[in-house]
TrEMBL record:
Residues covered by the ISXO2-like transposase domain: 138-285
Protein name: IS1595 family transposase
InterPro entries found in the cross-reference section: IS1016-like_transposase, Tnp_ISXO2-like, Transposase_Zn_ribbon
Cross-referenced PANTHER family: DDE_TNP_IS1595 DOMAIN-CONTAINING PROTEIN (PTHR47163), SI:DKEY-17M8.2 (PTHR47163:SF2)
Pfam families, per the entry: DDE_Tnp_IS1595, Zn_ribbon_IS1595
Amino acid sequence: MTSKSPSASPEFSVREFFARFPNDDACLAHIMEVRFGGTRFVCASCGKESTHHKLAARRTYVCANCGHHVNPTANTILHDTRTPLVSWFYAMYLFCTTRHGVSGKELQRQLGVTYKTAYRIGQHIRDLMSKAQGFDALLAGHIELDEAYVGGRRSGGKRGRGAPGKTIVMGLAERNGRMKAVVIPNVKADTLREVVLKNVEKGATVSTDELYSYGLLTGDGFKHGRVKHGAKEYAYYNYRAGETFHVNTVEGFWKLFKASVRSTHIQISGKHMQRYLDEFTFRASNRGRVNGMFDLLVGAL
Ligand SMILES: [Zn+2]
């Protein structure tokens, strides 16, 4: 049911991608654009504003005035890579346009590299996604919170909440806005409260399920509403607050995340979980803006 190939985006199609980035020179020019604003800028060596020309067959630009070398990929993950820049760019494109994530196998097939190289490229791009996300910014407005249990044993063992090897994760979503997700050690009241204090702006409205007891957040100035999932209650409107409390956005996110883990990644250990969460929340936060996502990734290099 899940398609593993990237969906053609009306905003940035595969055809458009290859028209924009036909070769490594085009990728390099784009990195120059993002890092230096183009090829004409104040040279770090001679201090004069001058044009920089690309050296043939090298990933290097040269100052027309003094001959100073500029390597656009210096201090980035693209430096010293033998994989063509176009392959890296195309991998980033795939990560921006997919819905269910990109497995190592899929990257291997699309880029024509070894599985080891494909896996490494994938992990680097997930790191870029977490870097590009701006995690320091607090979530504001109306925020939904919902926890989930992911990963762990696929068969043979006991399934469900307490199953061995499962990682506990907490999702936080602004209504119609940004998203974050973090690995948490347990669901104790102090742990939950800490997640909110660390990620949500003071005074914001927070929707949770009954895991968050009343009084846990209101003491810190949050407006708090709970849905009682145990009682099959999924949303309610509070007249006094003028808010509808529910956690459907985050629940939808966990549904997609779990299905994707099942269909593409087979197993994610707790150690790597945060990377995958960052990948999926990056896409959720920037949904519908493939071009914007792609430029954020290049900017995070
Ligand atoms: Zn110079």
